[in-house]
Amino acid sequence: MPWRHTIDLVKTMGRAFQFCPPMWANALLGKPGDWVPPYPKHSEFRILDPRKPVRALHYLIDAGLFPIPFTRPGWLGLVPDVFFLQTPHVMHWQGQEETYDDFPDEAWFFINGVTTNNDVAKMQRACLTHFFRRPITIIQNPSDSIYLDVMEAAIGKTGAWMAKPAHLAEVELKRALLSDKKKIVVIAYSQGSIIMANALRKLARNPAAVAQMHKLEIYTFANACDKMNYLDKINRIPHIENYANRHDLVARLGVLAPKKRGIICIDGPVFVNELWGHLLNEHYLYRLLDEKGESNYRFDPKANPRFKPDGAPPEPRLLRYHKDALRAARRSTAY
Q1: For residues 272 and 101, what is the distance between their CA atoms, to the nearest angstrom?
Q2: Per its UniProt record, what InterPro entries does this chain match (predicted)?
Q3: CA torsion 222→228→229→230, rounded to 10°?
Q4: In the chain, how many domains are there?
């Protein structure tokens, strides 16, 4: 990692923590009222549900226990793999209760953030499918403890090293881009935005993928990367939108960094909600819309002065998919 980039990263982290008052827990977990039941159906807080003690214990080990520093060998099959390094993998939609076949020309992917094991990733996918009624493939970056997750994110943020999840994302997205699908939609959350940014840089070196890049749409939540850029700046391809809570600590490391001099350069409009909290379902998806079904996230020109709208302030394209989903749901119940 270059020294200049390392110094910029440390400065960015220092500025991100400059809250007054220093409510760092709230910047990650939301206001105290969010922490107590009852929770929404897909809230991440349900991962610690005492009525499912095995799942809760599994998550606490995944997120909090420093793993044995290698993947579980076959001859240790009796030892749970939760104690070992986890391997990034793809979780396809097959076998789910709902088929969601209203939009066959689209392929949707979700790339998760830190401290996310399979159970949390499935909860987040369930919430996404609830809003958008699309089958979603998870490019799963499993947690290897909060300590290694943060280290991996910090290194990946600089672009100096492509971790295995970024290679996996590049392979999966290239396959989708070269397929007959007309739209490839990626939801990248937290560390997932870092993974997506690295995968995009790798895709930019593949002429066949670049030729199909007009099909790619990237929607980030709490984008923490340093650089995520259009490959075609004139036509703004691929399409990029960023959603961030004003008081989300992780967003303040990237798309909402207090000062963006130096390393941070993220393309696309930024839509901001004046909220605390970082959890995808609890603090973003469940707060995405107001009572009238309109976006709670407003275009903030100061968050990315480099983005110049063509005329009127941009409207979130992502919400069009939600409205399409509502129309599809009404059609399915009408028969």
Answers
A1: 31
A2: AB_hydrolase_fold
A3: -70
A4: 1
Domain with 160 in it: 3-334
Cα 158 from Cα 334, distance rounded (Å): 51
Taking Cα atoms as reference points, which of 12, 14, 44, 42 lies closest to residue 29? Answer: 44
Structure tokens at 98: 């709902």
Check residues 66 and 259 and name the one with the higher pLDDT.
66
Name the residue with higher pLDDT: 244 or 67. Answer: 244
Residue 137: what residue type? T
- Cis omega (within 30 of 0) for bond into 21: yes
Dihedral-angle region of residue 57 (phi above 0 means left; psi in -120 to 50 means alpha; beta otherwise): alpha
Q: Alpha-carbon dihedral of residues 197, 129, 286, 182, nearest 10 degrees?
A: 50
Return d(Cα 133, Cα 326) in angstroms, integer.
Answer: 8
Burial class (CB in 10 A: 0-12, 13-18, 19+), 92: exposed
Task: Specify whether the backbone of 127 is left (phi greater than 0), alpha (psi in -120 to 50) or beta.
Answer: alpha
pTM of the full structure: 0.94
Alpha carbon 309 to chain centroid, angstroms? 24
Q: What is the DSSP string of 71-107?
A: PPPGGGTTS-GGGBPPPPEEE--TT-S----S-TTEE
Residue with the larger pLDDT of the pair 218 and 148: 218
Percentage of the chain modeled with pLDDT above 70 = 91
